[in-house]
Specification:
Layout lengths: L13 E2 L8 E2 H15 L5 H4 L1 H5 L8 H4 L5 H7 L21 E4 L3 E5 L4 H5 L2
Antiparallel strand pairs: 1-2, 3-4
Length: about 120
Amino acid sequence: GQMTNLYNSNPAKTFPYGPGRRPVTLKQLQARLDALLLVMKDCKGQTCVKPWQALHPKGDVESLTDALRQEFDNFYWKEQKKVTFEKCTLTYEPRFEGPTDFERYGGMSGGRATERSQALLEL
């Protein structure tokens, strides 16, 4: 299939990706995908296989559609850290990457995609 660049779309446009094909905004979709990328960029073990469980350890989210529920908007927009890069280099240099840890939904302390991946799944 053909790829559609959603970012160049009208920001007010909605997409039928929410639960029950409920329309969601680009802002909602982008916030969830950014959090998913934050978890996946340094993941190991089961965190790579079940990244939504790392973000939602209680098991209430298993997919992007689940994560798009409106009750999670504040978590993804305001509480979750964002993927950033301080500098783009020709080689992999982690010191120029932004956060490697992420927030977990429900007021639980932050997770780390690398060192704590197994601990996240044991909760």
